[in-house]
Structures are given as structure tokens and as C-alpha cells.
């Protein structure tokens, strides 16, 4: 129950911003999609107020409150002024459109920012998308992958982004509830590598010549798996036991020699 | 280039099936979404042929060919007859709606089936969704997660499913190009566990009492990380070297004893 409220608080930090949408029906359909995924803030940048009836027809009665609360601006800079992170969505991959993200990668980047930031998801007009000037406001640009060069319906693009973001927030909340093991820190790992090295030298596994190569391989092996604190202790336990055993044997040998 | 054609071949195995859609505009918008994501087969189950002009308005000229090639049936069983795997989409979670998947999990299940199967993605009518009777045809049911109980626009639901499926197919093609390490098989792992056990017994790490507990921990540790063939060989190399070293020491002791 609490998680649901936490999610709602996070989603309230996101606004859907539509830059000069031509068709009021698309604003309504976008409002419905936003509402479905738990977003409630809708901002429209447009010189003329859009036709209310046409918006409501596509918003359905479930999203009427989003249309009622819709913020209308005539200037994009003004509409975006209060946001600390802005995501621009684009279908075109022009010269200045190099660093575009898949919506899923965008979600990974912004979900951690949500608690402390207000974030705008900016969509361009149906017929031409966002201009380079519009994109100058953006910290990140996303493109929904399509099979060929083809532009998505505006409200469908809003729906896909909202769906990804909502899924990302829910996923993060689920992750938090999961058991997270305490991974070994660098200090623990370094101690373990030294300990392992002493043992390997003792048994003559590491020849001076390939010593560096092997220690690098061992670091890569043990490092790749994000091993846990507990496991570092167990590995060092084995090393300690080996060295004790080795010592015992040498003492035996020593005592036998003095016989 | 080849990958693109391979993807197109796979996507041709999928049909979007709309059960009794009320609004021809939604059929058109669904056709456009399907086309955006590389799908070209659209099937409508409906007693009256839908109004062509209303469909085309939302399909836009890019997806006109999907509307032209649209298959019209009056009976769902007949429409689905040639498909070997059918996915039903639903917003409702009734008593018989227990095993519903997130669209992303559905994609994981069906992408491997694509090369050898024809797959239908079935969507219900706008006002009531699929009935239990309709769902009897389905091998799998998906629900797009929403913030509250709220039903998505039909074409948006189609867009989200097509987007997930297209992303899944592209992702699979990318994965195929990636380096896949050869993981150790069970035979290699068992050989390694035995070898490690011999060493641990030799140094007296495993007391008889906690022997089982420790070997289980070690199996869990080494098993969890999906270690590679190459790494099994390296670990066994260390074991072999230890046992050789141990043997040498005992020989030294032995030879000293005979002095």
C-alpha cells in the first residue's frame, strides 16, 4: 500500500509537455495515456487554446481531470522553466541527433533522479517533431525504435514513454523489496587478492614470469562476479587454513631434522 | 542488412487480430502502430465491414496498404484457425485471469517461437475487452500494467505490444552478434567440486562434522556465478598444483626420515 503511494509521489514529479500539438484529439488521447500510467500533469504549448470538446472525446471521462488541470503556455522556455531535467522525444536522426536513447535506457537514467527533481517529457508537433532549437532545452533525447523510417502517432508515442516510465518506477519499487546482498568492498577484495597470491606463491603455482598475467586473470574472475563480503571471508578462511597447514608440515619436517 | 531482412521475416509471422472493434478510427490507428513496428498482417473480426474512410484517416497514407490487405472474418475461431500460438490481451483481472504476463515477459516467451510458428496477438473490443470464451483460444494472456484500474485506448494497447515485440526481436538479433562465453557443464562442475574437496580435506579445512555444510556453500558460491569452462580448468589447475606441492613436501619429509 505504501509502495503504491510512494510510486504516485514519484510519478507526480513528471510532466508531459506537448509542443504545439495540432489536433486537440491527440491532446485528449495523450491525457488518457498519461492518466493510465499514473501521471497527472499535462502542459501544452500553443497559441490558441485547444478545442475542449475534441480533447474530452479522446480523453474519456477517466482523464477529464487532466484536461481541466492542463497548463497552457505560449512559450516553450516559460513552460519548461521549473524543470531540472528535460527529455526530448524525436523520430528523426539528423546530424545533431546523435546521442539518442531507447526509451528503456532513458528510464534507467531518470528513475534515480525522480525523488529530487522535476522532470519534463517533451513531445513535438505531429507534422514535424521537435526542432533543433526545441531540443536545445533537453538534457537527453529519446527515439522509439521503428521498423522503417516512420513517425508514430503523437498519443501513441506518449503512451509508450509513459508505459516505460511507469514500468521502470514499479520495477524499482520491487527491486527495493528484494534481498540485496552486501557486496565485498575494494578493501576486502584487495586483502583477499593478496592472501590468495601468498598461497599461490607458496604452492609454486605462480612462476615469476607469468605472475602478473595470472593475478590479472584471477582478479578478472573474482571481480566479474560481484562477490559478497561473506564469500571473501570464506575464501580467506581457506587461505589461512592452508598456510597454517603448511606451517605445521614445515614444523614437522623441522623437528624431524633435529632428530 | 541481412539482420534487417531476418527481422522482417520473423515479424511477418505475427498478426494483429482485433475482435469486434467498435470504432473504425481505432482500426486505422492500430494499423499505423503495427506498420511502425514492422508488422503487416491485420485481421478484424466483425459482422459489418468497418468504414474505410474513417480507418484511413487514422492509418495515414503510410499504413494504407495494411488496410487494403486487412482480412475480415465474422467468426473468431475461423480467424484464429491457422495460428499455432495465440496471445490474448486483457485489462481485467478476474477469477479466470490469474496467469497474466507483463508484455515484456510475453515477448521473452514468444520470440524464440517466431521462426517456426504463426502467432496471433488478440485484442478485445473497446467497451468490454475479451470475454472468457474468447480467452479460451489463448495460450497466454498479457496485461499492460496501469496505475489504477483503467482501460487503455485500443490502438495504444496495440502500439505498446507491437513496440515490445519489435524491441524484443531487434534485441534478440543484437544478442546473437554478442560474444557468448562457453559455460562449464555439469560434468566439468562436478569434477571441479571433487577436486576442490580433496584439497580442502588435505589442508584440514573440512572437519567431518561440517563437511556437508561447507561443500554445499561452495557449490552455491561457485554455482551461482555461471562460471566458464576456462575458469573450471584454472581452478582445477590450482588444485593439481597444490596436490603436487603437497606430494613433494611429503617426499622431502620421507627422504629426510630415511636419512
Helices and strands of chain A, in order, run as HEHEHHEHEEHEHEHHHH
Could you list the spans of chain A in which at least 5 consecutive residues all have pLDDT below 50?
none
Approximate helicity band of chain A: 40-55%
Strand order of the largest sheet of chain A: 3-2-1-6-4-7-5
Which CATH architecture of the largest domain in chain A would you pick?
3-Layer(aba) Sandwich
Main pleated sheet of chain A: 7 strands, parallel
Distance between termini of chain A?
77 Å
Brief digest:
The structure is a homodimer of 259-residue chains. The first copy, chain A, contains eleven helices and seven strands.
Overview of this protein structure:
By secondary structure, the first copy, chain A, is of the alpha/beta class. Chain A has 2 domains: 2-177, Alpha/beta knot (3-Layer(aba) Sandwich); 186-258, Helicase, Ruva Protein, domain 3 (Orthogonal Bundle). Chain A is built from 11 helices and 7 strands. Chain A has helices spanning 2-11, 24-36, 52-59, 64-69, 76-80, 103-110, 132-135, 154-177, 186-202, 211-224, 229-258, and strands at 14-19, 41-45, 71-73, 85-89, 100-101, 119-123, 140-142. The first copy, chain A, has a 7-stranded parallel beta sheet with strand order 3-2-1-6-4-7-5. In chain A, strand 1 (14-19), helix 2 (24-36) and strand 2 (41-45) form a beta-alpha-beta unit. Chains A and B meet through helix 1, helix 2, helix 8, helix 10 and helix 11 of A and helix 1, helix 2, helix 8, helix 10 and helix 11 of B.
